[in-house]
């Protein structure tokens, strides 16, 4: 075998190691601590998500539940994702996942519920008050209020439309509202407001997806 051919095979092997197993590198699973667990990996190096599937085992104190799902492409990001519905979560329980391509096992990984809580995406509402302030309220998207929702926080971020600089404030979900003082804003200016939720259960390490943007405009 010539040295050039041998070198080519080495390069090809290194390229395959870097790209062929790409889905394994960023595989992750998050739960909303209500009823849904979502697992995903990057699809940028893939033609599509076809053939990837996952088996999940939920280990409880007195029983074991098993789930499976097929990965599909996301409409929002370059990722493959699949979702399973469960009958609720317990902080210390373990989900054992097996990622497969067809019948080939690519990865096995355990996820403890409390470490991978990603809250649901909030929905924002803004109303201008008589004194020129902006009264912000939100829906945390959870069906019931409980200890978990009482330990959620919302981070509100607003900026002038077309600009990069932002202002942010964090509010406990239990407060339920936040007033943006109009006198501190630029007059006759359009602002964009977004939000993300986080949970005290895991030290607010993981934020929800960003909410849909809400626009509001200041007066004179």
Automatic annotation (TrEMBL):
Q: Which UniProt keywords apply?
A: Membrane, Receptor, Signal, Transmembrane, Transmembrane helix
Q: Which SUPFAM superfamilies does the annotation name? A: Fibronectin type III
Q: Which GO terms describe its molecular function?
A: cytokine receptor activity; interleukin-4 binding
Which cell locations does it reside in? Membrane
**In its keyword annotation, does this UniProt entry include Iron?**
no
- The residue ranges of the Interleukin-4 receptor alpha N-terminal domain are 24-114
Q: Which GO terms describe its cellular component?
A: plasma membrane
Where does the signal peptide begin and end? 1-20
Q: Report any one BP term from Gene Ontology.
A: regeneration
Query: Could you tell me the membrane topology recorded for this protein?
Result: Single-pass membrane protein
Name it.
Interleukin 4 receptor
- Designated gene of the protein: il4r.1
């Amino acid at each position: 075998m010539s040295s050039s051919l041998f070198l080519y095979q080495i390069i090809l092997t290194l390229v395959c190691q870097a790209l062929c197993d790409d889905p394994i590198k960023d595989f992750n699973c998050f739960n909303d601590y209500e009823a849904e667990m979502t697992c995903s990996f990057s699809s940028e190096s893939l033609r599509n998500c076809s053939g990837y599937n996952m088996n999940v085992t939920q280990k409880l104190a007195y029983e074991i539940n098993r789930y499976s799902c097929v990965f599909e492409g996301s409409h929002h990001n370059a990722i493959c994702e699949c979702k399973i519905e469960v009958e609720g979560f317990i902080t210390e329980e373990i989900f054992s996942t097996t990622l497969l391509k067809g019948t080939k096992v690519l990865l096995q990984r355990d996820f403890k519920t409390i470490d991978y809580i990603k809250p649901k995406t909030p929905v924002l509402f803004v109303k201008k008050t008589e004194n020129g302030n902006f009264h912000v309220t939100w829906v945390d998207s959870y069906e019931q209020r409980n200890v978990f929702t009482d330990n959620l926080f919302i981070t509100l971020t607003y900026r002038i439309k077309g600009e990069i600089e932002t202002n942010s404030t964090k509010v406990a979900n239990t407060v339920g509202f936040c007033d943006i003082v109009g006198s501190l804003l630029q007059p006759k200016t359009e602002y964009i407001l977004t939000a993300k939720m986080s949970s005290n259960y895991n030290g607010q390490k993981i934020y929800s997806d960003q909410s849909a943007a809400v626009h509001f405009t200041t007066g004179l």
